[in-house]
Structure formats: structure tokens, C-alpha cells
Amino acid sequence: MRTIRDIRESLPEDQARHFDAELADTELEALPEMLNRWVQLATDGFEEFLLSSPFEELEFGGRSYDDDQAGDR
Fold it and tell me: Is 6 within a domain?
């Protein structure tokens, strides 16, 4: 990423609002650190990982030890 616009466009809409707010309140001396942090957030791939197939092969509502205890009673 080469510009502040690149960083902003790579963020989801809700994060872009936080980015804008932080950018507006960041002092010039702290700007490089702030931008580096947001670049890492924008390019870490975590959101893509979650959206790819976040709950594949997971079953909700049961606990693995429920079946074990049912046989012991």
C-alpha cells in the first residue's frame, strides 16, 4: 500500500470509520506509527480467513463430554 487512501479502501466500512476518527485525532509525529498499525490490520488476511468458511464442520449446541457422561449415569 502506498497511500492513506489505499489503507482506507482496504478496510471494511465499520473499520474505515474508526480509521478516519483515529486519523483525525493523530498528531503528525505519531502518524507513521498509526498508519503502520492500520496497514498491518488491513493486510493480515484474518477477515478473509474468517469469511472463507468459518464454521465448516463445526456443530453447535452440544458439548463433547455430554455423550461421555450420559453413559455413566
Answer: yes
Residue 49 lies in a domain: no
Give the domain range for residue 1: 1-42
CB 10 within 8 A of CB 1: yes
pLDDT tens digits, one per residue of 19-58 = 999 999 999 999 999 998 888 877 777 666 666 766 666 6
Q: DSSP state, 12?
A: -
Spatial contact of 13 and 20, defined as CB atoms under 8 Å apart? no
The CA distance from 30 to 51, in Å, is: 32
pTM equals 0.56
| Crossing angle for the helix pair 13-25 and 31-43, to the nearest 10 degrees | 170
Quote the longest CA-to-CA distance of the chain.
67
Number of domains in the chain: 1
